[in-house]
Write a structure and sequence with these properties.
Organism: Paenibacillus amylolyticus
Shape: elongated
Distance between the termini: 47 Å
Number of strands: 0
Protein name: Pro-sigmaK processing inhibitor BofA
Number of helices: 4
Keywords: Membrane, Transmembrane, Transmembrane helix
Largest sheet: none
Radius of gyration: 18 Å
Pfam families: BofA
Length: 89
């Protein structure tokens, strides 16, 4: 019963999100923009990991780190580097 309720909430919220996106005539361009940001975030993390600028520090490519860099931009890479260095030495 619980999974049916949660599933129906998920479907309803997805339909509401699609309604809002297409009502404002954003269409598929917003998905392309988000996709470009995600690819650039992954590329930024990859460049930092394998360029050799900072040795001994590796930022994993996972949804949390890519999401952080997607939202914050390239300063998000600096934030992740600072957290990695300060927390894990």
């Amino acid at each position: 019963m619980k999974s049916v309720i949660l599933g129906s909430i998920l479907v309803a919220s997805m339909l509401a999100l699609l309604f809002v996106l297409f009502r404002k005539r954003l269409g598929l361009s917003i998905f392309a923009s988000i996709g470009i940001h995600v690819v650039l975030a992954a590329a930024g993390i990859y460049i930092v990991n394998y360029s050799g600028w900072i040795t001994g520090v590796y930022i994993p490519l996972n949804p949390a780190t890519i999401g952080t860099v997607t939202v914050l931009g390239l300063p998000g890479v600096g934030l992740l580097l600072g957290l990695k260095i300060s927390l894990f030495g």
